[in-house]
Amino acid sequence: xxxxxxxxxxxxxxxxxxxxxxxxxxxxxxxxxxxxxxxxxxxxxxxxxxxxxxxxxxxxxxxxxxxxxxxxxxxxxxxxxxxxxxxxxxxxxxxxxxxxxxxxxxxxxxxxxxxxxxxxxxxxxxxxxxxxxxxxxxxxxxxxxxxxxxxxxxxxxxxxxxxxxxxxxxxxxxxxxxxxxxxxxxxxxxxxxxxxxxxxxxxxxxxxxxxxxxxxxxxxxxxxxxxxxxxxxxxxxxxxxxxxxxxxxxxxxxxxxxxxxxxxxxxxxxxxxxxxxxxxxxxxxxxxxxxxxxxxxxxxxxxxxxxxxxxxxxxxxxxxxxxxxxxxxxxxxxxxxxxxxxxxxxxxxxxxxxxxxxxxxxxxxxxxxxxxxxxxxxxxxxxxxxxxxxxxxxxxxxxxxxxxxxxxxxxxxxxxxxxxxxxxxxxxxxxxxxxxxxxxxxxxxxxxxxxxxxxxxxxxxxxxxxxxxxxxxxxxxxxxxxxxxxxxx
Length: 489
Hints:
Elements: H1 2-16, E1 26-34, H2 41-56, E2 58-66, H3 67-80, E3 86-89, H4 96-101, H5 109-115, H6 117-122, H7 125-129, E4 132-133, E5 136-137, E6 140-141, E7 147-148, E8 151-155, H8 156-162, H9 176-185, E9 190-192, H10 201-204, E10 211-213, E11 222-224, H11 241-256, H12 270-274, E12 278-282, H13 290-298, E13 302-306, E14 311-312, H14 314-317, E15 321-324, H15 331-343, H16 345-353, E16 360-362, E17 368-370, H17 381-384, H18 400-410, E18 412-413, H19 427-445, H20 453-467, H21 469-488
Parallel strand pairs: 1-2, 1-3, 9-12, 14-18
Antiparallel strand pairs: 3-15, 4-5, 6-15, 7-14, 8-12, 8-13, 10-11, 16-17
């Protein structure tokens, strides 16, 4: 049923497309992250531009950045007022609410209505509402798995070697027997994938720990998912027992050698991942089809095991989006490109998987196999647009997207679902707390504070207080009360 609706939306878009094109070629500048550089990226981008130019009379300057470089790069671009049209934004990366509060992004409601009717119809109204700030949409959603289920991702070879039962993992500490075996008998393998970037860490298991973030990744301000009060209560998650236990655990792991000694310096986990040098990583979204995606991208098997129930959160809905630069010279064309990317199956899959016959081969109408050793394997179909348009990889059932859509609709709702936080009244405090988090969280997150973890944690929370954390919490609670009051009217 969902596939029929999707096909209908695409057909409507194609019928409308000729009306959306006007004279004058335009070049759009698009910033996004991934495992770059890719050897054949320019070949793929050239092929993509042939489609884009034909369909909307535009081309794209693809500013694809490595994961470890993207956030610093796009922050500089935005702060300096450099020319760009579109950039990746989320609650966890290139913070969406902070960008909105700084006036970086353009309100999109009218542009979506006029230039992206197909995209608008793809995404449920409640999910568009999750992007609203002061009633306006500022983010274009890449519709896919929208609920959040944290998981542990085990290298299957290691699980088989040691006969480890992954179903015994209910809390972090349950991983220790597995980590100890790898540490003792496989010195060339890092027991965990915890590094400064890409390892999961606190934010990657925040649903498992029972929280939903309000302001964005790492910033103070969260509610308990199990909060059953008439009005949810925001707290500083960094002053909770859950966070203290996490910090102590990773610090102990660091001292035992379960975390690599240079973890703090590693801002790109891809080389370690590609080389199968870690026993287990954790965090992210444990979703249908995950194991097949990993095998296709990295060439070895994993076992992904959920360690939280699926929760539909505002923060997970806005976890992968694009913003349009408030100063874009061509916002209409930028929105037309987003419409095309989300409704044109050929273009979307080209950017996801590359060129047929070069980077992948079709083995069925919508089933593909990747060409081993090809020069284009970004493995980021979730980042480019509506993932329900993606071809299926080996091991993925052709009912995958129906299953994913059903999971979105059946997941437990967070008490924050439907709440649109306005960051503008506390944008100064948010910026100040962000600076503190940037200073401390990577050290804490990787366990690199070691035996001094309690002193580091105390220093971190004290500096957050000085930066205005309690004012952020107070403002969140004020807005939560108003939100619930308006619901009653």
